[in-house]
Amino acid sequence: MDNSELQVEDETQNNHSRRQSLSTSNTIITESSSNESQTNVIATERRNSPSKASSTSSSPQKTTTSVISNSPTMKSVKIGNNKEIIYEMNKNGIQSNESPKVNKKLSRTNIYSSGTNLTARDAFGPKLTVPTTPEDTPPLPGTPIFSNDVPRDSLLQKDSSSETEIDPETLYFRDGRRRIDMVLVYHEDNNGVMTELEARRKEQRRVFQQNLLKEGLQLELEPKENSFDGKTYFLKLHIPWKIKVQYAEVMNLKLPTKRFITISVKAWQSNEDVKESPKFWERWIQWIKEIHTWDTKKYPEEPSFYNSIDSGDREERFVVKDRDTAYTPAQRSLIVMQILLRARYDENHEKAGIRRLLADGTYLDCYSLHEGPYNKPGLSGENLDRHLLYLIWARPSQWYKRQPLWLIRRYFGEKVALYFAWLGFYTKCLYAPAIVGLLCFMYGVGSMDGPDNVPSREICDYNIAGNITLCPICDKACTYQRLGESCLFSKLTYLFDNPATVFFAIFMSFWATTFLELWKRRQAVIIWEWDLQNVESEEEPRPEFETTVKTFRINPVTREREPYLPVWSKALRSCATGSIVFFMICVVLGAVLGTIISRISLVSVFYEGGGPFLQKHAKIFTSMTAALINLVIIMILTRVYHRLARWMVNMENPRTQTEYESSFTFKIFLFEFVNFYSSLIYIAFFKGRFYVHPGDADARATEFSRIKTDVCDPAGCLSELCIQLAIIMVGKQCFNNFVEILSPKMWNWWRKRNHIAATKDHGRPYTYWEKDYQLQDPGRLALFDEYLEMILQYGFVTLFVAAFPLAPLFALLKHIAEIRLDAYKMVKEARRPLAERVQDIGAWYGILRGVTYVAVVSNAFVIAYTSDFIPRSVYAIVYSPTEDLVGYIDSSLSEFNTSDYRDDMKSDMDTHHPETCQYRGYRNGPDHANDPYGLSPQYWHVFAARLAFVVVFEHIVFALTGIMSYVIPAVPRSLATQLQRERLLAQEAKYEKGIKSREDDDDILSMLREAGSIGRAAGGGRGSWARRFSKLSDGLDAHVDVASRYNRNSDGSTVWEVT
C-alpha cells in the first residue's frame, strides 16, 4: 500500500455494547503505523445496524480512499464504492514516528460520552488534537441548521411542522449541543406582497447570512410561525471552537494555562516586606474581610490563573475542561460581534457590518442571551453566571459584600466590569471623607456653646446683640426684626462654619488628588490582571456616518475609498452646535435668575400672607422652597437638553463611536455643570455682593436690578448654601434612584404587554430569546448616564464640601445603593450588553481631574468669601482689644437712617419706625462726612485678607498635591517588578522557542530523508504543520536544497516537496 494514500478500515470487535454504540451514524478516526518511517491517518465511517456489525466482525473489510478536497475547514474523503463523506478535522499533516501506536482506534462518540479531555499525543501523536465537544462534528441528519456542512449558496429552512418541540428553557440549538452565542431579530409580514424596500432588505439578509457561514459561524433560524406574534424571525448564531480560537488569537483574547495555574496579582504581593501586626489588629482585619466576602463554601472563589493566547495547536497546555465554556460568555459575544461587524451584506465591498443593517431596519435587534434565569439554577442544577451574580452581587441584602469583579468581567465584559471596579473603588475611598466630615459636624454640635461660637451666643442673647434692630429685607410687606430672630440661622451656620471646616476643606483637596492617583495604580493592576495592555484602538466608522456622508476620499493609510467629511463642513456643524450650547447655557442662567427673583417675591408672600410661625421662619422656608423650585427646573432642563444634545451630535456626525461619545460627553457635562452648580455658585460667591444699603433707589429701578436686594442673613450665607446643596444633591439622588428602579420595570411591562397582545398562542411558554427580546435594550451608551451621575456627585462632594461636610456621607450611602441598583438592573431588568474591551474609563478620568483642580480653587473661595473665617480672623487680630470674637457681630453690621427710605419702600406692617436700623456689611454710617454708606476701611482689610488666603491656600494645596502625584507612582512597584519579570521570561521564551524550532525543523528534514527521496505534506494551509513547512521552505534555504517549495493541486490542496 502506498504511503501517500489514506486508508479506511472497519473496527472489528464483538462486544455487544460496542455494537450498540455503532448503530448510529458516527465517524471513527484511527491511527496506524505500518513501519517506523511513516504514520498514516485512517478515517472510518460506520452506518451499521447491530446485525451488520456482527457480520463485519466476522469478516472485516478494508476500503481504500483518497483525498479529493482539502479546503481550510472541510475535508472530503472518497470511499471505494463512489461514496463520499465530508467531515471536519482539526489538524492535518505528516506525523512523526515518535512513540507509534499501532491500530489504536478512537471513536468521536466515545470521546464525547467519556467527558474527558484527550491530549493530542493520545489521539494522533504529537501536535495534533481531536474535537472533545460535539460542535466540531457534522450535525445529525435532519437538524435544521445553517453550517459549514450545507451549500454556501442557499439557506436551508426546515418546515416547522417536522421540528421537534422546543425546550423553552434551552440556551442551545435544537440539537441541544451548540450554545447560542448571539441572536438576530427581523420581521417579515408582507402577506405575499413585498415592496421594493422589503425585497432589498431580504436580499441583504441573504447575502449577509451567506457571508456569516463563510466566516465559519453556524446559524439556526426559528421560523416566524414559532414566534409569539407570527411575524418575527429569530436567527440564532453559534461560533465553533476552531473559529473561536482563530479570532481569539487575532483579538489577543487569552485562556488560562496549566503551567502557571497559581500565579495571580496576589502572588507577587507575598514578596513584599510585611511588618507583623498585633494579634488584635490581625483578628480585626480578618473579621472585616470575612464580613465583606461571600460564603466560599456555597459560591466559587475567584480563580487564579495565568492567561495566554491559544493559537489552536497547543490546546493541551490550557485549562480547557469544556470547549463550550473555555471562553467566557463575554469573550464569545465579543468574537461573534467582531465577525458581524466585518461581514459583507452586498457585493459592494464598502457595505459591511451589522450596525448598518440595524440602522436601516434590515434587522431589528442584535443581542446576547442571558445565561438562564436569574433566580434559580440551570436545568442541570448548576449555578450559571447570571444566577451567581444575582445571589452574591445584585441582591440588596448583599450591600456590604465585595463585588465579584472577575465574574462581572466574565459575564458582561471588561467595559462594564471596569465601571463597577471604578465605582467600588470610589465607594471605598469615600469612607475616609465621610468619617472626617461626620467628625467635623459632630465637632460643631459639641462646641456649640464653646469659645469658638461667641458670635452665635451674642445673636441669641437679647441682652447683648440680640436686641439690635435689623432693617426690613423687602419693601412694604416686611417688618423690622430683632437680631435675636436669626438665632436658628446662626446655630445652623456654626454647624458647618467652624474651625474644623477649614481643615476639612484642605483634607478634601488632598483626598481628591490621592483618590485619582490611587485609582491610576488600581487601574494599572486591573489592566495587567485582565490582559488589557494590547487592546486594539482601531475603530470602524459609524454606520450613520457612512450612510449620510456623500463625499469620499482615498484613505492615505489603507489606500481604500472611504466616506469623508470636509473640514469646512465640520467647522460649520461645530459652530452651529456651539451656538445651541451657548443658547442653552443662557437658558439655564435665565432660569437661575428667575429663581432668584422668585425667592425675593416669596419673602414678601410669606411675611404678608403667613401666620406668626411662617413669618418667624420665613427665611428658612424661602430658602427651601427656592431650592425645590430650582431642583424641578434642573431635572426638566436635563431631560430636554439630553435629547437636544443627541440631535446636535448627530448633526455633527462624528466618524467613529469614540468621537461620538466624546462629543456627547463634553456637551452633556458642560451643560450639566452649569445646570446643577450655577445656583450654588451664585449663593456661594455672588449673593449679597451687589447689595449696597436698604434704601438704594437703583436696586428698584427694574425687575432685573432687584437682584441687588437679595441679601444674606446676618449670620452669613453659608447656611443657605448648605440648604441649597443638601436639597439639590439628596433630591437628585432620590429622583435618580426612583427612575432607575421604575423605568426598566415600566419599559419591560409595556413591551411584555404588547407582546402578550400580539401573541397568538397564549398557552405556549416563551423561549429565552423571546424573554430577552422583551427586556430593555441598554444601548451603546448604557454606562454614560451612570458615569455622568457619579461625576456630578463627585462635584458636589469636592466643589462645595466646605459648606456641607456631610456631603461625602450622603454620597457614600448613595454609592452603596447605586452599586446594587445598577447590578439588579443589569442582571434582571436589562438585556445583557454586548461586551467591549477598554483600557480605562475614557474621558471621564480627565473630567475628574479637571473637577479636582477646580475644587481646590472653589473651596478656597468658599472659605474666604462665603464663610466668616477670614472676617473673624481679621477682627480678632486687628480690631478686637482682647484678641477674641467678643463684639464681632456688632462690628460686622452697618447703620442705616430710616428717614432715607422712600415712601414706596417703607414697611406697611409696622406702625412705629425706629430712627436707625442695622444691616450686614462693612460700610460707613449715614453721618459720614465724605462718603455716607460708602465702603469702610475694615471692608478693604477683610478683602485683602481674603485674596491673600485664596492665593496662599491654592498654592500650598497645589504644591503639596503635586508632590503627592509625583511621589505616588502610577504603577505599583510590585507590579512594575512583575512586568519586568514577564518581559524577561517572554524574551527568554522567544530565544528558546527559536532554537527549539530550528532543532525540530532539522528533525523533520531528517525524518523525511529517511522516509524516502520525497516527502509530501498535504494540508489546507491553516494547520500548524502547513505553516511549519511554509516556514521551512522560506527560511532554510541555506541548509537544505528545496527542489520545489510548494505545488498547488487541482483540488486546491497544497503539497510541499523537500529533497
From TrEMBL:
Keywords: Cell membrane, Glycoprotein, Membrane, Transmembrane, Transmembrane helix. Residues 1-76, 131-166 are annotated as: Disordered. Residues 408-982 form the Anoctamin transmembrane domain. The keyword Transmembrane applies. The chain crosses the membrane at residues 416-445, 500-519, 580-600, 620-641, 664-685, 791-813, 841-865, 943-968. Residues 172-405 form the Anoctamin dimerisation domain. It is a multi-pass membrane protein. It is found in: Cell membrane; Membrane. This is Anoctamin. It comes from Apis cerana cerana.
